[in-house]
UniProtKB/TrEMBL annotation:
It holds the Pfam family NLPC_P60. It comes from Terrihabitans rhizophilus. Residues 156-281 form the NlpC/P60 domain. This is NlpC/P60 family protein. Belongs to the peptidase C40 family. Keywords: Hydrolase, Protease, Thiol protease. Coiled coil: none annotated.
Amino acid sequence: MTSMDPRLTPARPDLAAEHLRGTVEAERYVPALGMSVSVGSAPLRREPREDAPLLTEALFGEPVAVYDLAEGWAWVQLETDLYVGWIPEWALGPALEPTHRLSALRSFVFPGPSIKLPPLDVLSMGSRLAVEGEDGMFAVLAGGGYAVARHLSAIDTAEQDFVAVAERFLGTPYLWGGKTSIGLDCSGLVQVALDAAGMDAPRDSDMQEAALGDAVPFTGAAALQRGDLVFWKGHVAIARGDGSLIHANGFHMEVAVEDAAAAIERIAAGGDGVRTVRRLPPILL
């Protein structure tokens, strides 16, 4: 078998995606079934069980390629960042053609055009929505539900400053594998913020370190520019350009702003020094 990142390769010894035929070895090859996430957020797990580790989360409207169904679980590849894992089958629905995205940190979906009705679901920033009409302050969603129109933006709208987007998550609890305002991890914060600014980003910090921006020499905290991504082994933070960093981290167990020099010193005391600094295009700031 060709060496490929298993996190991004829909292949197992017993089954693989049809497009990998001739590239990887498997007992059988299957075509993708296109679906999308039909709930506010859904866990993508390493194994098909509720207590399996959380790899990442898929957001409402996110397209997925389904390759296997087993006892209420679907083995899928997310089409946004190509991550592979198991997602509950109840969290999937027909493929959507999104027209809008949620630009608010979070927002409710109501069963009718009234804020007094019990919400059907809660959406998170980056959710993809198919809007088919308007009703007062609400956007009418394809498939049912009413979203607050002012919380939506056209699907191709991009935020002007991804650092400012990240700052909106300040105080959000740390959650390994999370990528919503209920909880997220370091690379989830970077991915969600960059997505809002119109830039695709891989899911995990090592992938981001390899793929995003250009490497620049690390010459100390004072030299960091706004939007620089600072990488340690297994961790990433965003420089704010004022001598501080913002990052979701297990020390504070939340998204926190820290003095950059103090954070670098604290992390180094634990045995890890800064490994890489990546500088992103100015258009994202």
